[in-house]
UniProtKB/TrEMBL annotation:
NCBIfam families: TTC (TIGR02089). Its cofactor is Mn(2+); Mg(2+). It catalyses: (R)-malate + NAD(+) = pyruvate + CO2 + NADH. Belongs to the isocitrate and isopropylmalate dehydrogenases family. This is D-malate dehydrogenase (decarboxylating). InterPro entries: ICDH/IPMDH (IPR050501), IsoCit/isopropylmalate_DH_CS (IPR019818), IsoPropMal-DH-like_dom (IPR024084), TTC_DH (IPR011829). The keyword Manganese applies.
């Protein structure tokens, strides 16, 4: 069969790391005889929004639903388009309307990269953040009253549903069940956020009864962030609401040396809609145009996409190539965020060559 993949590079470094993601994907497809067909779309701030006054065409849903997966770079160019307009007009729309309710974000200290945490070596940091991806704190329920006056009030409600929370918890428990350590940590804040979070804890406790082999603990989000830094080795699968998961999935990768390597999978596990694969990082206007962005987050996201499409061996081969290059490459091949003097292209090319070599 031919896998049809929609490619949306986006803005800023999205357009720089995506060619390396595509190069790695094509190298993998050749090696493993996987038939992929890539279709590129220019939906982004620069310059689709500026030309059309919207982030997506009206028929985006019919167009993209036809694909087996979406390979995504990063969106956002706040100088030209306010972030909440661009992100609610694209990425967050995809997550919600394609019901990609699991955001799976591996966090692993890779060989050859120095953790900013003292004495941490590969193996010490190796966990997943499972982030609820369609509701929670990212809600469109709320509004502004008395706008522009001294009585101005803004409200944005957190919305959690039993259906929405239970399905992401189930995914997280099943993931923990398959891992050797069988451990799940829940991110809570039931001391201060006294309606939704005690209820979240109750949902976790109830779900845990179905997975007796999984050991469960929980931390309030404040001390949990501290423990990511102090004791990253404690964690195996961390499940969190939308906002807490967002924060943890930048902090975790930062503990592994750079957010530039972190991948993510926005998954609709039932396969009713296409899932979306993207690096955790954004469009990084501060380094855009310099050709120095780390392409590993994009390439690793491609590995997660192939695994999702049923080609775990191909995904594993990409990760093995990433690790081999990081371990062996000269510093003029790897990018500055991991201590090198190389470029997006030099690192991407080395990984693709390694994939093809096997
Ligand atoms: P960011 O992730 O773009 O950048 C944060 C910092 O990390 C910057 O210093 C940047 O240079 C560095 N960085 C990020 N990716 C890197 C890489 N691959 N290699 C080396 N360094 C890297 O976050 P931000 O600055 O908060 O956001 C910039 C824009 O991106 C905003 O418009 C924001 O809304 C958007 N954004 C989009 C996504 C997405 O599309 N998924 C995710 C996060 C942020
Ligand atoms: C992410 C990003 C997005 C989020 C932004 C850009 C809306 O930070 O994918 O982690 O908050 O989910
Ligand atoms: Mn984020």
């Amino acid at each position: 069969m031919t896998y049809r993949i929609a490619v949306l590079a986006g803005d800023g470094i999205g357009t720089e790391v995506m060619p390396e993601g595509v190069r790695a994907l094509e190298a993998t497809a050749r090696r493993f005889n996987i038939d992929i067909e890539l279709t590129h779309f220019d939906f982004a701030c620069c310059d689709y929004y500026l030309e059309h006054g919207k982030m997506l065409p009206d028929d985006w849903h019919q167009t993209l639903i036809e694909f087996d997966a979406i390979y995504y770079g990063a969106i956002g160019w706040p100088e030209k388009v306010p972030d909440h307009i661009s992100l609610w007009g694209s990425l967050l729309k995809f997550r919600r309307e394609f019901d990609q309710y699991v955001n799976l974000r591996p966090c692993r200290l890779l060989p050859g990269i120095k953790s900013p945490l003292a004495n941490r070596v590969p193996g010490d940091i190796d966990f997943y953040v499972v982030r609820e991806n369609t509701e929670g704190e990212y809600s469109s329920v709320g509004g502004t009253m008395f706008e522009g006056t001294e009585r101005e009030v803004v409200i944005q409600e957190t919305v959690m549903t039993r259906h929405g929370v239970d399905r992401v918890l189930k995914y997280a428990f099943e993931l923990a069940q398959q891992r050797p350590r069988q451990k799940l940590t829940s991110a809570t804040k039931s001391n201060g956020i006294a309606i939704t979070m005690p209820w979240w804890d109750k949902r976790v406790a109830e779900m845990s009864e179905q997975y007796p082999e999984v050991s469960v603990d929980k931390f309030h989000i404040d001390i949990l962030t501290a423990n990511f830094v102090m004791h990253p080795d404690w964690f195996d699968v961390v499940v969190a609401s939308n906002l807490f998961g967002d924060i943890l999935s930048d902090l975790g990768p930062a503990c592994t040396g750079t957010i530039g390597v972190a991948p993510s999978a926005n998954i609709n596990p039932e396969g009713k809609f296409p899932s979306l694969f993207e690096p955790v990082h954004g469009s990084a206007p501060d380094i855009a145009g310099k050709g120095i962005a780390n392409p590993i987050g994009q390439i690793w996201s491609g590995a997660m996409m192939l695994e999702h499409l049923g080609h775990k061996d191909a995904g594993d081969a990409i990760l093995a190539a990433i690790e081999a290059v990081l371990e062996e490459a000269d510093s003029n091949v790897v990018t500055p965020d991991v201590g090198g003097t190389g470029t997006t292209a030099s690192l991407g090319q080395a990984i693709s060559e390694r994939i093809e070599k096997g």
